[in-house]
Specification:
470 residues, alpha/beta, Arc Repressor Mutant, subunit A, Aspartate Aminotransferase, domain 1, Aspartate Aminotransferase, domain 2, 8-stranded mixed sheet, 4-stranded antiparallel sheet, 16 helices, binds ligand 76U
């Protein structure tokens, strides 16, 4: 007689208990293949439960294929292969997969990877979102396969504001939205000539470098000089695609002057298969000088792919970035990625559109420019005072970080370990070197100030000093 342990005091439904126990018995091969199960009535009497409960359990087992039924004969156990021997053991996570708990212990941060959320106008953002929801915009419910490049009206807004603020020439048709620069680059490389040779600034944006490496792209590292990526080096190494951050070189902070921009564009126009990928990740933030128009705006040969993001100007967690493709690459995109569904959340796209169209975005940028500019100035003042002659600061008055080197015998790694102990989050330039022949023979750091409130600057600099010298 089949004996199951059914408890009426348990929160689990009776039928679930029957189902679970029978399933386990079947998987453990405690039944013979094709063995007949007790009839519903029989089992209900044995277990002292309703026929309905037994019926529901049998129906579920039937639906999942553990048992089969024969008309007027009853229910039989399906013949199943033996499942792996670990069945029935508890489900444990392999120790090397356990993710470290969020430290949260960094009371002070020099991270360059965030934006200041304390000054973000969340209420205004929420109002924009509310407006979008109230209008029950049809783009939210429409078939998302209709817009692989992103919602059209959102792209129209972005095209308009890029033209105004960055001198980027584009039709909405040329814009592709994506949930991050890496997502966009991953698509882009499939549109560019196969067997291309890529070149990147060194030090530079490793996350894209690694991506290209993973894709087995042929990739070369190019040194920088005072004006940014060296065009002489480009000519010597002879890549056909160059990835640059001209507006605020990452991480050194060099702003590429117009002379170098023209050289770079001329280089690109000299052969059919040459392209420049312009990563304009934080160009909204220039302090004391106007933003230099983009390379894309100067390009009349359709050689520049412009990439931008709202990660620095709004919040990194928004995950909305975009690229502006030359028209011949839009055609390719549609052939290649017409099937691909947009990766940016539709509600976030429409909220962003509203945020820009209502003027809130420009207001926010203006406000943040003031905050960041002051913070940057105070931080540099404090660093120069504290470190006297033993610090060199690099980078234009721009962005949300600058670079600093220190005269010390300590290595960058050592300094970071000490900083961590002192609850100071700090990133060295080592994360940005692509090749081994380093530009700086001293420890160099990326000092981000987006998450460093003015009142904590003094303490941050003290902790940094201790990590470097004491
Ligand atoms: C982004 C550069 C050079 C783009 C960046 C960043 O995906 O659009 C830096 C590090 O938010 P996304 O990427 C923006 N181009 O530096 C932003 N920086 C990264 C995220 F904070 C990390 O790993 O050192």
């Amino acid at each position: 007689m089949l004996s199951l342990n059914i408890r009426t005091d348990k929160r689990e439904f009776i039928y679930r208990q029957i189902y679970n126990q029978l399933k386990r018995e079947i998987l453990l091969h405690h039944f013979l293949p094709n063995e007949q199960l007790p009839s519903k009535r029989e089992l209900s009497e044995t277990l002292n439960v309703s026929v309905n409960s037994v019926n529901s359990a049998y129906q579920q087992l039937l639906a999942e294929g553990y048992i089969y039924s024969k008309e007027r004969s009853g229910f039989f156990v399906e013949k199943l292969d033996t499942i792996s021997p670990s069945f029935g053991t508890t489900h444990t996570l392999s120790p090397e997969l356990i993710e470290p708990a969020e430290s949260g212990g960094h009371l002070i941060s020099f991270s360059h990877m965030s934006a200041d959320r304390s000054a973000f106008p969340f209420d205004n953002w929420l109002n924009c979102e509310r407006k979008v929801l109230k209008l029950k915009n049809s783009d939210l419910s429409d078939d998302p396969t209709r817009f692989p490049q992103g919602i059209y009206s959102v792209r129209r807004t972005i095209a308009r504001f890029l033209s105004l603020t960055r001198g980027v020439n584009s039709f909405p048709e040329q814009i592709v939205l994506g949930s991050g620069t890496q997502v966009l680059v991953q698509m882009l490389i499939q549109l560019l000539p196969v067997s291309s040779t890529y070149a990147m600034e060194d030090p530079g944006y490793r996350r894209v470098y690694q991506l290209l490496k993973n894709q087995k792209a042929d990739i070369k590292e190019i040194k920088l000089d005072k004006k940014g990526i060296s065009v002489n080096e480009i000519k010597r190494i002879n890549p056909n695609i160059v990835y640059v951050t001209p507006s605020h070189q990452f991480p050194t902070g060099i702003v590429m002057p117009i002379s170098r921009r023209i050289q770079l564009l001329n280089w690109a126009s000299e052969a059919e298969n040459r392209y420049i990928i312009e990563d304009d990740y934080d160009s909204e933030f220039k302090y004391g000088f106007d933003t230099i128009p983009s390379l894309q705006g100067l390009d009349s040969f359709e050689r520049v792919i412009y990439i931008g993001t709202f990660s620095k100007s709004i919040l990194p967690g928004l995950r909305i970035s975009y690229m502006v493709l030359p028209q011949h690459l839009v055609k390719k995109f549609r052939e290649r990625f017409g099937f691909f569904m947009q990766t940016c959340n539709g509600l976030a796209q429409l909220t962003l559109q509203n945020f820009i169209d209502s003027g809130e975005y420009q207001k926010h940028i203006k406000h943040m420019r003031q905050i960041y500019s002051e913070r940057r100035m105070l931080l540099i003042e404090e660093l120069e005072k504290r470190f006297a002659g033993s610090i060199t600061i690099y980078g234009a008055k721009a962005g949300l970080h600058f670079m600093a080197t220190f005269e010390t015998k300590r290595s960058a790694e050592e300094i970071i370990i000490r900083a961590k102990k002192d609850k100071l989050e700090l990133y060295s330039l080592n994360r940005c070197y692509l090749s081994q022949d380093n530009l700086f023979n001293k420890p160099a750091f990326i000092l981000g100030f987006a998450n460093l409130p003015v009142e904590k600057i003094g303490e941050a600099v003290d902790r940094l000093y201790r990590a470097v010298f004491q």
